């Protein structure tokens, strides 16, 4: 079963509680929360304080995607705010193994995100330590961009790596997911689909979430 993770980045922050309640009562299993520092990515979003408010609206999994440098400085703050999954970027972590150990010691699921240019093979010696790989299918920083087609090949390669190693790491696809391409992304081997613009730009977000789930 595919997990749908609506990205709050495209929500209306003046009506955040309403949008959170909509996701909570929808078929989406996760909330995807994008944290941007204006250094690792050319945009600034929100921090632990907002995550803490979102936590109070739902019991569903809070999937926190850190697009920040020095994520080790903030892991504890996001744990306190209620994060269930904490994903760091491989490109931002010189000591990735240490970052993963820190996240796990804080009793969160550990994820690693890869920018579009980063080969999935770079995960070879860390795959057995992690719970989730987030493959960026756009360049991180903004919602509403177009899906990069080469991601499908990366999903297939990563799926084979996970199967060959006998692991159960989840593959999450982040960026440009639509009701039109969801089926091919799933078919390539994805477990989790993040969707921002597709969900919040829809006239009927709850129905769109359902369509993303049944696509394919
Ligand atoms: C991009 C973020 C994504 C983004 C996805 O940097 O990591 O999670 O919100 O938005 P859409 O689905 O609109 O591409
Ligand atoms: Zn994201």
What features would you describe in this structure?
This protein has 216 residues and is an alpha/beta fold. It has a single domain (3-214), classed as TIM Barrel (Alpha-Beta Barrel). The chain has eight helices and eight strands; from the N terminus they run βαβαβαβαββαβαβαα. It has helices spanning 16-24, 48-55, 75-81, 96-105, 151-164, 182-188, 197-200, 205-214, and strands spanning 3-6, 30-36, 61-67, 85-89, 109-114, 132-136, 170-174, 192-195. The protein has an eight-stranded parallel sheet. Helix 5 links the parallel strand 6 and strand 7. Helix 2 runs parallel beside helix 3 (75-81). 43% of the residues are buried. The model has no long low-confidence stretch (mean pLDDT 98). Residues 7, 9-10, 32, 34, 65, 138, 140-145, 174-177, 194-198 line the site of D-xylitol-5-phosphate. The site of D-xylitol-5-phosphate has 22 residues, from strand 2, strand 8 and helix 7.
């Amino acid at each position: 079963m595919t997990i749908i993770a609506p990205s709050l980045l495209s929500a209306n922050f003046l009506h955040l509680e309403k949008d959170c309640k909509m996701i909570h009562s929808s078929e989406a299993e996760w909330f995807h929360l994008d944290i941007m520092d204006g250094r690792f990515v050319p945009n600034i979003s929100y921090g632990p304080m907002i995550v803490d408010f979102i936590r109070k609206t739902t019991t569903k999994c809070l999937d926190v995607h850190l697009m920040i440098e020095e994520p080790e400085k903030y892991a504890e703050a996001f744990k306190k705010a209620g994060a269930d999954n904490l994903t760091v970027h491989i490109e931002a972590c010189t000591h990735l193994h240490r970052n993963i150990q820190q996240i796990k010691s804080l009793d969160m699921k550990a994820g690693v995100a890869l920018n579009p240019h980063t080969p999935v093979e770079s995960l070879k010696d860390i795959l057995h330590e992690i719970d989730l790989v987030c493959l960026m299918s756009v360049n991180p920083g903004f919602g509403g961009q177009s899906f990069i087609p080469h991601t499908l090949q990366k999903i297939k390669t990563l799926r084979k790596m996970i199967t060959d190693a006998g692991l159960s790491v989840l593959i999450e696809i982040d960026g440009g997911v639509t009701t039109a391409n969801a089926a091919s992304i799933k078919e390539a081997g994805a477990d989790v689909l993040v969707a921002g613009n597709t969900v919040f730009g829809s006239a009927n977000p709850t129905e769109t979430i359902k369509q993303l789930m049944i696509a394919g």
